[in-house]
Design brief:
Structural class: mainly alpha
Strand content: under 5%
Helix content: over 70%
Order of helices and strands: HHHHHHHHHHHHH
């Protein structure tokens, strides 16, 4: 086996701050899922549990695996790490509809306390409703995404562990907010968000992400981040080749996931409109219908 590859595979790391949080989130969700499954078998689905665990696995892969160990040496690996934290873990977790299940996984007193914070009219719920409004989530996500990829902040994060952790946390948090109105999990803070709005929201995200990344990959003639020119180069990639590969990967993966989201939303829109049409026809067919 190639010595470099062997070193990569042996570079899993133990970070209690990540491992404890992920394990706690997993334990609470699984507990809540099992409780709800016993009470109302049809209220929770196995596929939601699978998606949630896959979302947590993506976080582990991003922050505890060799990706995080070797990200300071390879821009491409760093981009894979960022993709897991923004484009993979957040939608998987939200598709699992986590809040109701997590509530059932908590002890009685914390469950009731959190329930009161999320109740209709509660200050926390009103604030979260404003924070998950589409224009806010879109702008916040784009500003954080590209702000951290500017040479200055990016270089600073590579050289300071606290700043680097803050970068990852802000990526993940802003991505959760970005995906929230698309998936619209409980509590549905904005009611039923029309699928047409969600489709426009996705399309509006494609250009500011995919176009700059592909343009940089095609036209850049030097590495943007001097840090990668000062570290050992793995697998014979120059800093510029590494940069081009990372930008192409980012633009391609983002574009693909946005396309999948677009297709799923379009299918859901057609299904929703068909169900509404059938309901109207049923009502009109009844005696006294208009």
């Amino acid at each position: 086996m190639d010595p470099t590859l062997k070193a990569v595979l042996a570079s899993w790391q133990w970070r209690p701050d990540v491992a404890v949080v992920v394990a706690g989130l997993g334990a609470v969700y699984v507990t809540g899922w099992c409780r709800l499954r016993r009470r109302k078998p049809k209220a929770v689905r196995p596929w939601r549990l699978a998606l949630y665990l896959c979302g947590l696995a993506a976080i582990i892969l991003a922050l505890l695996s060799p990706l995080d160990t070797f990200a300071p040496w390879l821009f491409t690996l760093h981009m894979v790490e960022h993709q897991l934290l923004t484009m993979v873990a957040p939608p998987l977790l939200l598709l699992a509809n986590p809040l109701p299940v997590v509530l059932w996984g908590l002890p009685r007193n914390p469950r009731h306390a959190l329930g009161r914070l999320l109740a209709r009219g509660a200050l926390v719920r009103r604030g979260f409703r404003r924070l998950t409004w589409m224009p806010v989530t879109w702008v916040l996500y784009m500003v954080i995404l590209w702000g951290w990829h500017l040479p200055g902040p990016y270089q600073a994060a590579l050289q300071d562990d606290v700043l680097h952790n803050g970068q990852h946390l802000s990526f993940f948090a802003s991505a959760l907010l970005f995906w929230w109105p698309l998936i619209n999990p409980a509590p549905r803070l904005h009611g039923h968000i029309p699928y047409g709005f969600r489709i426009v929201y996705v399309i509006a995200a494609v250009v500011p992400v995919s176009l700059p990344t592909m343009s940089i990959a095609l036209f850049a003639r030097q590495a943007f981040y001097p840090h990668y020119e000062t570290v050992p180069r793995l697998w014979g990639l120059t800093a510029l080749q590494d940069q081009i590969t990372g930008w192409v990967l980012m633009g391609t993966v983002d574009g693909l996931i946005y396309m999948i989201a677009f297709l799923l939303l379009f299918a859901r829109m057609l299904d929703y409109e068909e169900r509404v049409t059938r309901l109207r026809e049923t009502i009109d067919a009844k005696p006294g219908g208009t």
